[in-house]
Amino acid sequence: MKNKTIAILPFVNMISNVENEYFSDGITEEIINVLAKIISMKLTLTKVSFKKIALSFVLILSLSSITLAQTIVKNGVETLDENKSGKNEISIAYFGETVTHPGLTLGIERNLWEKKKLKLISSANIGWYTHPRHHCAAFLNIEGGFRSTTSFGLYSDFFLGIGYHHSWVNGDVYVSDGGDDVKIIRDAGRPHLMTNVSFGLGWDFSKKTSSHTKLFIRIKPMFIYPVNNNMLIQAAAMVGVIWPL
Amino acid sequence: MMKKYFAPILLSMIMIIVGCSKDDINLSDDLFFIRNNGADMPVWVRGNTSSGVYVILNHGGPGSSGIFEVNMEAQPGNGEIDHVSPLKILEEDYAMVYWDQRHSGNAQGNANPDETTIEDFGDDLALLINTLKQRHNVKKLILIGQSWGHTVATIYMTFGDNWQNRQSKIDGYINYKGNITYNMPYEYAKPRLIVIADQKISDGDEDEFWTNSKTFLNENSRIENADDAMKYFELVDMAMDAMISTGQRIGTSIQYSFFSPHSGWYHWANSKATGSSEFIKNLITDDRLIETAPRINVPTLLIYGRHDLIAPFEVGEWHVENIKTSPNNKKFSSRC
Questions:
Q1: pTM value?
Q2: pLDDT for A145-192, tens place per residue?
């Protein structure tokens, strides 16, 4: 870190409601605080409890997601009435680490606010994926985030999410049946809290054609807790399409 | 509208059915899980199952992975990550059984590493052996205990009330560079590490590191905590010049995540969780197995490296002198 500086640019409240100014200020302050703590550790991360860092990260993500959801709920209806931009869309996407670990998500997106090139979007998603011979999982989550679209249709988006994740081992499960006997059991799976971020690029065909279809690719790091009483970090790649509902 | 979404919904249903279906038992490549006290541990049986001879690998660590070592020797003597595991060669003649211990490698579930006891590892191995005997036609069963895996094998064979029954279920044992405490290898390696430190200092090679290391060695007759253990391992890595970079390990782990039951995500998370756990902190000063290891009474092959400083050959000699196995049934090799 010698001779290197990190600049934290403030988040701007782009919603007309000034009551929510605290939210953008809060995110900025939180990032500064977290980075300051990390840097003060002098990057001796191997000596720092990984669990504490991971839990802090989840806490920040969770609070951010909840606060964002609150903001959406409070402002969504009135802004929709003002600019008529609110509409529901359905998304379907391949969801997996690679082609060898396939999965699928289905989601409903709703535009909550729109100004020039920027949109505030909320979504609810269900998904499933498998790592053959390791585990498979299903999840249900909500996300909130922003999408910025160019005049010719290319867009980028960023989402924060929180939800429920349930995983099953991918094979027969044996337990002791007392003494030396064993038996196969039906795996009911394990419950987890799932938070995630998502970074995407896409193409909005409505900008240049009459089609309202959008195509996108996303990278979605997920933070799953608890796995062996710790945070499991996974990432999935998404390739999908969005249609108006 | 239904027509529009019919294809994607049908596709998703097919993927769910195919992806989560149970494996058919293919005796040359069988994967299943054992569940005990919060842990879901994968077991992978590969190789010549028709031989009836099953060889279980207890991987090292704590926190490493037997599933990973199917494809790769995690700590090869030549320091190269592309070194193919010698275990694969054994698959031609025997059924090799690779498993990942609780909160290690690809193990799932929610076993809290802070609350784990060494007894849990013995119980897990007992469950594995009982399951293997029920699921496969096992005529002979051999255990391999590699490094920390020897600790697990020793817990199984000598610890608790049921050790005699447990030992009767195995036909032979291979102690492959195994340890049963942190301090026994440290005490044997220390004189040689001091000699190496003196040599490095006189050569002007990493002078400050070796001067500090020599001070550490002279001031610490025992390893008492995690910092001491980390210092010892760092010293040994430098002295043996056999380090594999973390980047290389992660890269290889990701590579094997694509087409095998291995998951780099779990491997990494479990390694971190185990390494920083209360279990490890307690283990460092736990010398109880010194009292029970002499109960080992099965035919035993001991393989140690002459220049190994993590599992010095003197540890092997201690076992040869102390375990109950008759002289005709134990063989010691420390020439490599």
A1: 0.79
A2: 999 999 999 999 999 999 999 999 999 999 999 889 999 999 999 999
Q: Rounded to whole angstroms, how far apart are CA atoms A193 and B80?
A: 39
Write the residue in A50, A104, A243 that is nearest to B276 by C-beta: A50
- E-strand ranges in B89-183 read 95-99, 108-109, 140-146, 172-176
Look up residue A46 and give its two tokens: 């191997």
Using CA coordinates, name the residue in chain B closest to A100. B258
Per-residue model confidence as pLDDT tens digits over A193-226: 999 999 999 999 998 899 999 999 999 999 999 9
Element (H, E) at B66: helix B66-71
| Other CB atoms within 10 Å distance of the CB of residue A166 | 16
Gap between the Cα atoms of A220 and B27, Å rounded: 37
Contacts of residue B103, Cβ cutoff 8 Å, sequence gap at least 6: A228, A229, B39, B63, B111, B113, B116, B270, B273, B274, B277
Tokens in use for A195? 């938070």
Q: What share of chain B is helix, strand, coil (3-state, %, to 5)?
A: 50, 15, 35
Cβ-defined contact of B130 to A176 (cutoff 8 Å):
yes
Architecture per CATH, A88-244: Beta Barrel (2.40)
Complex confidence, ipTM? 0.86
Q: Provide the H-helix boundaries in A42-136.
A: 50-83
Q: Rounded CA gap, B39 and B48, in Å?
A: 28
Instruction: Give the best residue of A51, A228, A241 to mutate against chain B (max B CB count within 10 A).
Output: A228
Contact B257 A97 (CB under 8 A): yes
Q: Rounded to 10 degrees, what is the CA torsion of A212, A213, A216, A220?
A: 80
